[in-house]
């Protein structure tokens, strides 16, 4: 991970930490004032922005922004979605507990990353399948922080409607953040307005959203007919209001600086650390220790972000290992065992492990032998075609890059016909040998046998485990190890990311063996060990806190 991307992630982390401190400050204020504080916060932000905009320096740049149709539309749209998010969130509170609604609404980084991929497509790379996976894992961690799985029993229709409203609030907030990022970028590029000044100027673009303000006030007054905060409470809350406004300013400006430097839309998932920071700050502020489900949720968030943004280890085997540890440990914590006593528990798992190891070793040996023979034939063909016509060498390189069976078969027939037509039957014979080696892949039955062992292990280990810490610790180590080994075999057979050859930039344009550039030890080894150790230690402690 390069320095520029690391600094961007640090800015998002600092922004999340500042935002996470806001609930701690709100906890010290009067509850009636907190219920209407979103509107109060916007009013305070507009009030502190007024002197900046009224000044000659700020007024000139504000008028420039108003004359720019793109900035005007983007800023107005972001304000509209922001107020819509507040409105939907307030409506969700009628049928949802406030912590649950907050957790659902805090999943906005996913729709924000999707929208940024389109609005900032000249700057950002769009999300891929892996980004969606790890973003969902981080989102699941946010859900586990509040132990939502244990609260879903017997929910009525109104609760699900409230959850949908909170989810719609998250989508609206994500769109607001994405449109704001685009507006801040245009304000800097076209009018040299930085994130600090743009923070003050954008507050006045809430004016087109006044109809939503009116709806918000009507709904708020309808659901809370008696909001009467005593004057002493207002004076006591004034310092905390100032703190909240300062934290909001810091968080917003830091995030705007980060979006200007953002290169990957998925880096915004670092914001999922916000509930983690909030829990830690609440723990430090109140002196209460974290609960087991909170630790598990934090582990989901940290693991997904470490794998996605820091890229500790990009192999499929390590990713599957982390996913299995998270799944197995969470199952052991949240789901009680079905059978309390099972004297043949470890015996059954031991028998499965014997079959698994035998099949795995044989499969790995076959993959290793096949890969070595195939690479030997590829190197020989590359040398044989080095001094031949260019179209033959290019056709061979196209063959090397086509890993799917259909593409490989098509390129094989094209190259074979060209070799025979040019009189190179000996080289065509070597090509036939290569095709024969490629056909000797692992049979599907090997993978089915290994998968059956994994399913049986999961069924015995997770469903019929004895109610002891020994079985739970055994599962969190044994089952992920089997998955890790299984995916090493799959990865060895299906690794299609790089070609064996690369073309030199010299005038001759020869194709030589590609030397893989290894990841630095700091990124590949240390971070992977830290992540693995953190997960194991966290689950060991969380399982000790599991309810009886």
From TrEMBL:
**Highest taxon of the source?**
Bacteria
**Secretion signal, residue range per the UniProt entry:** 1-20
Which keywords does this chain's UniProt record carry? Answer: Membrane, Signal, Transmembrane, Transmembrane helix
Transmembrane as a keyword of this entry, yes or no, is yes
- For this protein, the parts annotated as crossing the membrane are 37-58, 70-94, 100-120, 132-148, 160-179, 200-222, 234-257, 269-287, 293-312, 321-339, 345-364, 444-463, 469-490, 524-542
Identification of the protein by name: EamA domain-containing protein
């Amino acid at each position: 991970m390069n320095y520029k991307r690391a600094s961007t992630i640090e800015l998002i982390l600092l922004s999340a930490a500042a935002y996470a401190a806001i609930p701690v400050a709100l906890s010290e204020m009067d509850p009636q004032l907190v219920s209407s504080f979103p509107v109060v916060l916007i009013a305070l932000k507009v009030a502190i922005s007024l002197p900046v905009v009224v000044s000659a320096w700020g007024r000139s740049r504000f008028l420039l922004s108003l004359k720019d149709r793109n900035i005007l539309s983007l800023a107005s749209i972001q304000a509209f979605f922001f107020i819509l998010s507040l409105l939907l969130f307030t409506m969700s509170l009628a049928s949802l507990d406030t912590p649950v609604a907050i957790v659902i609404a805090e999943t906005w980084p996913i729709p924000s990353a999707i929208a940024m991929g389109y609005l900032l497509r000249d700057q950002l790379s769009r999300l891929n399948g892996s980004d969606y996976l790890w973003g969902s894992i981080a989102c699941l961690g946010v859900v586990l922080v509040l132990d939502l799985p244990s609260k879903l029993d017997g929910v009525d229709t109104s609760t699900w409607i409230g959850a949908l409203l909170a989810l719609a609030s998250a989508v609206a907030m994500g769109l607001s953040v994405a449109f704001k990022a685009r507006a801040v970028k245009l304000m800097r590029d076209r009018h040299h307005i930085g994130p600090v000044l743009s923070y003050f100027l954008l507050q006045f673009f809430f004016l087109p959203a006044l109809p939503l303000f009116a709806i918000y006030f009507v709904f708020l007054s309808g659901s809370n007919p008696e909001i009467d905060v005593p004057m002493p409470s207002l004076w006591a809350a004034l310092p905390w209001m100032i703190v909240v406004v300062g934290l909001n300013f810091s968080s917003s400006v830091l995030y705007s600086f980060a979006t200007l430097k953002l290169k990957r839309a998925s880096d915004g998932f670092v914001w999922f650390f916000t509930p983690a920071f909030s829990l830690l700050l609440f723990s430090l502020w109140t002196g209460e220790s974290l609960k087991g489900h909170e630790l598990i949720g934090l582990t989901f968030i940290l693991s997904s972000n470490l794998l996605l943004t820091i890229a500790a280890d990009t192999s499929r085997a390590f990713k599957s290992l982390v996913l299995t540890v998270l799944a197995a440990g969470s199952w052991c914590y949240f789901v009680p065992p079905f059978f309390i006593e099972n004297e043949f528990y470890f015996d059954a798992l031991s028998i499965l492990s014997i079959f698994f190891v035998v099949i795995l070793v044989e499969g790995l040996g076959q993959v290793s032998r096949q890969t070595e023979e195939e690479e030997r034939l590829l190197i020989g063909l590359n040398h044989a075609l080095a001094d031949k016509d260019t179209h033959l060498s290019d056709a061979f390189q196209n063959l090397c890059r086509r890993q799917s069976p259909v593409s490989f078969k098509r390129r094989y027939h094209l190259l074979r016909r060209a070799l025979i037509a040019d009189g190179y039957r000996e080289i065509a014979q070597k090509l036939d040998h290569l095709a024969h080696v490629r056909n000797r892949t692992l049979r599907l039955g090997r993978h089915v046998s290994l998968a059956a062992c994994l399913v049986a292990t999961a069924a015995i280990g997770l469903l019929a485990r004895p109610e002891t810490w020994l079985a739970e610790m055994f599962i969190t180590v044994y089952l992920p190890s089997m998955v890790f080994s299984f995916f090493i075999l799959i990865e060895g057979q299906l690794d299609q990311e790089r070609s064996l050859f690369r073309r030199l930039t010299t005038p001759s344009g020869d194709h030589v063996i590609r030397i893989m550039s290894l990841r630095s030890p700091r990124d590949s080894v240390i971070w992977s060990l830290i992540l693995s150790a953190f997960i194991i230690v966290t689950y060991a402690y969380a399982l000790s806190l599991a309810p009886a």
